[in-house]
């Protein structure tokens, strides 16, 4: 039982905090949101220098062999800083697919380049009718002599328009919703037959609709075993969810701190509004929610590295649902407690709120993950023995006096 | 960052589990499982079994008879007791007055009271609340007037949990009226056999007798029964309130209650299928389980901070709020799970020696009463609204 960060982790945390405080101001971010690519390649190079782009990769591929807890530290800081750069798309989603399923040549070709900041990836998996189900793949890849031909459409691909390479899921056998028969391919974004329609998202980030029409790739484009990609995709999305949970917790902390500050400085009826008990209790509830969300973030980030897929998925769904609820509550109350100022574009508060809101609908919302978690209750209890019936017994449960 | 227990901690858990399995009396276990009333003897019997093993007061320093366990070990011990469904150790002696005696009592008080708390010879109850002093405890009015080497105590205490079993009561009494209300309070230890003390039952909404009113009519209390200095009682009381909230999260007991709820939901049926397959109901269980998962880790975070000697501060309020809400929700879902068999009220059926025929499944009898009973959890130990005041003021500085 240890809730401490290592010395290296503390250094990483401090480094990112300093960078964001000094070099990633709200004003600068505002300009980046309006820029053509929607983020800064200078900042990306800076991240490469910090080592964060190589964090989760094995040392033999220039990586730092980091754990999901290291990713947690990065994402919590990025949440607070409203960082726009495609870290989740490139390092967490794309990078982990290559790391977990790629062969030695693919890893050698891609991972060091990601770590050095020279290669951006996007995971083109979700499709127009998939909602959040990961086994729904209608895009096809047909064997074509030595290679493959891909046809289909991918939707809301995070940072799809700026990625150098796309990791595309496609069906190589079976029906649209079969678990088996999904494969992954590395596709050059500029390859013939790939059309990309990039657009901004509501929270200032970027995404793209991608169409594949007769896109030809070589045999070496296949990542991992043919037909067996679903577990790889699930693992990558789970890792992405753990990362978003940490980002959300960073946002929740930032919103709570800003709201508390506002309660102490904003005056009405001649006093700071934080003197009113109705608002004090709201802030107390937001604090409780933040602490509980924090705990769930630890759970997700520790368990996402678990080799037991069902344990991993249960923890990740638990965290995504719970942090989604906490984030919704804190976000809405932060706006409410800021009053009229809360609904302006001028304050960073509304931008934190928007990012937090959209994290909720990325990779499955509260209902989706609560449902996934709830369904695990149908699994047979771990032990066949009759559980001990505690707690209802005895009329003595502690008390008062 | 590591959420796993170490090999040593797991070995410790096994040691505790083996001891409980070998020593927890079957008749008490059956009462607990069946949701039957526990008698004073049942509670004391388990107390004495733990005392013999040296485990009755894990949080005490070793020189007073504690275990020397660290906070993680104490947590594991609590979890194992909860999972086995043992009676709780009544907190008023071991966890509440004892730390005050250790911190502020005289050597004579320590050597007289502490061994008797440990052995179970003295059953303690708490004399804090009064009819006019609940959340605003400092407004208490029970008077103690000096008369030679005695105090003469007059007034009324209330919500005295298990006062009808108690040998001793620790009381906050007013010894001064100068200055702020907090400044004229003293902390007295009073023998319940002293003439002038009357204990009257308060029947709670579940029909049970757990709490009492305690009346003091010219009760003579020797000066040497006062803890520390006169008029400094509020300081000692605040110290005690800090101790009262340790373990308040009740994670172990709630985990056991969740397990039981799931078992009921597998046995009950809805639309010809196990109730747990009803998605609307299952999602409610899932929701409270999420809350409990988060609380378990929040609790462990506080415990490991404590282990590293960072004193648990107002975070305890967070544990109290979430812990009590979860307990209430679990009891409410258990009541909902048994459906219309939550209706029958067979008061005598809760007695272990009752021979009557049950109505409905065996697990259904206690659940509604339990739900009623647990409404207290968001009120006692500083109501949840008071906890939010503490968070606002102590954590947030509002």
Looking at this protein, list some descriptive labels.
heterodimer; A: about 400 residues; alpha+beta; four-stranded mixed β-sheet; four-stranded antiparallel β-sheet; 10 strands; globular; disordered C terminus; B: about 400 residues; 12 helices
Structure summarized in a few sentences:
Chain A contains 11 helices and 10 strands.
Cα radius of gyration of chain A in angstroms: 23 Å
End-to-end separation of chain A: 35 Å
Average pLDDT of chain A, to the nearest integer?
A: 94
How far is the N terminus from the C terminus of chain B?
A: 32 Å
Roughly how many Å is the radius of gyration of chain B?
A: 22 Å
Largest sheet of chain A: 4 strands, mixed
- Per DSSP, what share of the residues of chain B sits in E-state strands of 2 or more residues? 5-15%
Sheet/helix structural class of chain B: alpha+beta
Compute the number of helices of chain A: 11
| Multimeric organization | heterodimer
Beta-strand content bin of chain A: 5-15%
The spatial strand order of the largest sheet of chain A comes to 1-4-5-8
Characterise this structure:
- The complex is a heterodimer of chains A (401) and B (398).
- Chain A has 401 residues and is of the alpha+beta class.
- Chain A has eleven helices and ten strands.
- Chain A has helices spanning 7-23, 26-34, 41-50, 68-81, 87-101, 104-115, 230-265, 277-303, 309-337, 348-360, 366-375, and strands at 121-124, 140-144, 147-158, 165-171, 182-188, 194-200, 206-217, 222-223, 267-268, 271-272.
- In chain A, a hairpin with a 2-residue loop joins β9 (267-268) and β10 (271-272).
- In chain A, α9 runs antiparallel to α11 (366-375).
- Mean pLDDT of chain A is 94; it is low at 383-399.
- The two termini of chain B are 32 Å apart.
- The radius of gyration of chain B is 22 Å and the shape is globular.
- Chain B has twelve helices and ten strands.
- Chain B has helices at residues 7-23, 26-34, 40-53, 71-84, 91-104, 107-119, 233-244, 251-267, 279-307, 315-337, 367-373, 384-395, and strands at 124-127, 143-147, 150-158, 168-174, 185-191, 197-203, 209-222, 226-227, 269-270, 273-274.
- By secondary structure, chain B is of the alpha+beta class.
- At the A-B interface, α7, α8, α9 and α11 of A face α2, α4, β1, α8 and α9 of B.
């Amino acid at each position: 039982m240890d809730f401490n960060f290592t010395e290296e982790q503390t250094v990483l945390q401090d480094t990112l905090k300093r960078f964001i405080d000094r070099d990633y101001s709200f004003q600068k971010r505002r300009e980046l949101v309006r820029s053509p690519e929607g983020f800064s390649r200078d900042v990306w190079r800076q991240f490469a220098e910090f080592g964060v782009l190589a964090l989760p990769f094995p040392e033999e591929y220039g990586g730092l062999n980091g754990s999901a807890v290291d990713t947690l530290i990065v994402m919590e800081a990025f949440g607070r800083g409203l960082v726009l750069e495609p870290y989740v798309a490139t390092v967490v989603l794309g990078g982990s697919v290559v790391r977990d399923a790629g062969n030695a040549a693919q890893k050698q070709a891609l991972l060091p380049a990601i770590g050095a900041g020279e290669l951006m990836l996007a995971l083109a998996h979700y499709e127009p009718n998939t909602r959040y189900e990961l086994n729904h793949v209608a895009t096809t890849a047909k064997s074509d002599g030595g290679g493959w031909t891909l046809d289909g459409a991918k939707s809301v691909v995070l940072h799809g328009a700026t990625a150098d390479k796309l990791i595309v899921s496609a069906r190589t056998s079976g029906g649209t919703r079969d678990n088996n028969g999904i494969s992954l391919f590395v596709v050059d974004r500029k390859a013939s037959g790939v059309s990309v329609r990039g657009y901004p998202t509501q929270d200032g980030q970027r995404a793209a609709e991608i169409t594949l029409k007769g896109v030809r790739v070589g045999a070496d484009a296949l990542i991992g075993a043919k037909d067996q990609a679903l577990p790889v995709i699930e693992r990558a999305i789970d890792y992405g969810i753990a990362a978003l949970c940490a980002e959300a917790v960073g946002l929740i902390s930032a919103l709570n701190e800003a709201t508390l500050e506002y309660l102490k400085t904003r005056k009405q009826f001649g006093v700071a509004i934080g003197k009113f008990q109705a608002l004090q209790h709201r802030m107390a509830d937001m604090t409780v929610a933040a602490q509980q969300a924090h705990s769930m973030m630890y759970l997700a980030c520790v368990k996402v590295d678990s080799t037991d897929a069902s344990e991993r998925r249960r923890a990740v769904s638990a965290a995504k649902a719970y942090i989604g609820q906490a984030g919704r509550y804190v976000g809405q109350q932060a706006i409410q407690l800021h009053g009229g100022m809360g609904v302006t574009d001028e304050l960073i508060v509304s931008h934190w709120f928007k990012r937090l809101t959209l994290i909720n609908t990325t990779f499955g919302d509260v209902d989706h993950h609560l449902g996934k978690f709830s369904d695990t209750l149908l699994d047979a209890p771990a032990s066949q023995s009759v559980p001990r019936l505690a707690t209802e017994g005895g009329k003595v449960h502690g008390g008062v006096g | 960052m590591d959420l796993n227990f170490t090999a040593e901690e797991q070995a410790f858990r096994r040691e505790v589990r083996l001891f409980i399995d070998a020593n927890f009396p079957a008749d008490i276990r059956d009462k607990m499982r069946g949701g039957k009333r526990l008698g004073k003897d049942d509670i004391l019997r388990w107390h004495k079994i733990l005392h013999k093993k040296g485990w009755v007061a894990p949080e005490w320093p070793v020189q007073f008879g504690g275990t020397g366990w660290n906070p993680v070990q104490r947590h594991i011990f609590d979890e194992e007791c909860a999972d086995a469904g043992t009676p709780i150790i009544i907190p008023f002696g071991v966890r509440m007055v004892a730390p005050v005696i250790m911190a502020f009592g005289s050597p004579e008080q320590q050597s007289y009271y502490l061994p008797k708390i440990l052995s179970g010879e003295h059953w303690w109850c708490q004399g804090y609340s009064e009819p006019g002093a609940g959340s605003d405890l400092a407004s208490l009015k029970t008077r103690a007037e000096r008369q030679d080497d005695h105090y003469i105590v007059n007034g009324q205490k209330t919500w005295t949990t298990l006062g009808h079993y108690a040998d001793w009561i620790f009381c906050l009494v007013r010894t001064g009226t100068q200055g702020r209300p907090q400044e004229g309070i003293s902390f007295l230890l009073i023998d319940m056999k002293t003439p002038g003390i009357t204990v009257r039952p308060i029947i709670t909404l579940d029909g049970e007798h757990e709490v009492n009113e305690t009346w003091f009519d010219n009760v003579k209390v020797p000066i040497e029964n006062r803890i520390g200095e006169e008029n400094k009682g509020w300081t000692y009381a605040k110290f005690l309130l800090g101790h009262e909230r340790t373990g308040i999260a009740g994670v172990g007991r709630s985990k056991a209650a969740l397990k039981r709820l799931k078992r009921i939901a597998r046995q009950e049926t809805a639309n010809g299928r196990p109730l747990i397959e009803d998605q609307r109901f299952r999602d409610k269980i899932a929701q409270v389980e999420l809350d409990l998962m988060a609380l378990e880790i929040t609790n462990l975070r506080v415990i490991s901070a404590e282990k590293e000697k960072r004193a648990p501060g107002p975070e305890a309020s967070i544990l109290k709020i979430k812990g009590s809400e979860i307990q209430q929700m679990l009891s409410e879902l258990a009541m909902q799970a048994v459906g219309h068999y939550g209706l029958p009220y067979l008061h005598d059926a809760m007695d272990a020696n009752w021979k009557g025929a049950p109505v409905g499944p065996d697990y259904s009898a206690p659940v509604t009463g339990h739900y009623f009973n647990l409404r207290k959890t968001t009120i006692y130990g500083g109501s949840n609204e008071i906890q939010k005041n503490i968070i606002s003021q102590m954590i947030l500085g509002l």
